Amino acid sequence: MPIRVFIYDDNIARRDSLKNLIQLTDNLEYVGEAENCKDAVADMENTLPDVVLMDINMPEVNGLEGLKTIKTTRPEIKVLMQTVFDDSEKIFTSIRNGASGYVLKNDSSQKLLQAIHDVHEGGAVMNPGIALKVLDYFKPPAIASSLSEREAEVLQLLADGLSYKMIAEKLQITLNTVGTYTKRIYEKLHVASLGEAISFYYKHLK
């Protein structure tokens, strides 16, 4: 049986190109297309695809929302995300929401066809550059270990919502010393604000 493929993309020319590629490829069957995911539930029920090629950036209802809808209502359908943006946050959101793979739009036709077959067979597909981002994301950052014990303690207290004055009283140090520690934390973590420092703490140290 051929692999049934549905296309989501707001670019008509690209939809036509993908449609032609699928129709000219043995073992693939084009079953439908749409410019966004506003009717994703009905689209899936009416066409019953095996694999969905999902653009991420589309008007009204984008690919990330469409992915969640499809995996909630039809978890057996494999969704292969496509984008021109090498965006870490979109990558991880897609993975968390059940995407079977993630390819860039400038990947070759051969890579895309191989990706469709791979996800249909239960594999997980990623562009090599994206795979490196995923590995880096889950690797504990070396810069975190550069904090001294006292600097890490100050960062934890800042993340807990304590003011400089409260930290000074708790650690029995001066306000200036708290400021010095905070400046060192910013420098070592390569951040420019308290919000970024706290975000780093919860992402990598909590």
Shape: elongated
Element pattern in H and E: EHEHEHEHEHEHHHHH
**Contiguous runs where pLDDT drops below 50 for at least 5 residues:** none
Q: How many helix segments?
A: 10
Summarize the main sheet: 6 strands, parallel
| Radius of gyration over all CA atoms, rounded | 23 Å
Q: In angstroms, what separates the terminal alpha carbons?
A: 49 Å
- Sequence of strands across the biggest β-sheet: 2-1-3-4-5-6
Query: Could you give the count of β-strands?
Result: 6
Proportion of strand residues: 5-15%
Account of the protein in words:
53% of the residues lie in helices and 15% in strands. It has ten helices and six strands; from the N terminus they run βαβαβαβαβαβααααα. The longest helix has 15 residues, at 175-189. The protein is elongated.
List key phrases describing it.
206 residues, alpha/beta, 6-stranded parallel beta sheet
Summed up, what is this model?
With 206 residues, the protein is of the alpha/beta class. 53% of the residues lie in helices and 15% in strands. It contains 10 helices and 6 strands.
